Amino acid sequence: MWFFLVQPEKALTEVPRQPYFRLLLQTDNTGDIVSFKISAESHFLEAGTTIIEALDRVFKLFWLFGIEYTPGCENFYRLLQTGVYRLKYGSVPKSIIELLAILGKHGT
């Protein structure tokens, strides 16, 4: 069974204006995660064996190809861009700046 990960339900019904990467996870009959894949139009790429590896790869694909973040997931990717990778590019929503300030205060 396949599930979209980091892909809101609303965005699944919209027709994308440009190619987007979607992170998918596959589970077995017991619900255990079997694999992560990245879908790009009609192609699938291996995304690693852990959620961290998979998120890292899909984020880097957005940067490598200079593609805008998927609608509905933009704040999540901006959080990764600013808080994890420390990349300074484009505008950062105030909510993300505030969240990073709160996390910084707690030593996270």
Arrangement of strands in the largest sheet: 1-2-3-4
Instruction: Please summarize the sheet with the most strands.
Output: 4 strands, antiparallel
Kindly report how far apart the N and C termini lie: 34 Å
Rg calculated over all Cα atoms: 15 Å
Q: Indicate the structural class.
A: alpha+beta
Helix content: 25-40%
Envelope shape:
globular
Question: What pattern of helices and strands is seen along the backbone?
Answer: EHEEEHHH
Count of the domains: 1
Task: Write down how many β-strands occur, each being a DSSP E stretch of 2 or more residues.
Answer: 4
Mean pLDDT: 80
Describe the model:
The chain is an alpha+beta fold. The protein contains four helices and four strands. It has one domain. About 6% of the residues have low confidence.
Helices and strands, with pairings:
Blueprint: E1 2-5, H1 9-13, E2 21-27, E3 33-40, E4 43-46, H2 51-65, H3 74-84, H4 94-105
Antiparallel strand pairs: 1-2, 2-3, 3-4
Describe the structure concisely.
The chain has 108 residues and is of the alpha+beta class. It has helices at 9-13, 51-65, 74-84, 94-105, and strands at 2-5, 21-27, 33-40, 43-46. It has one domain.
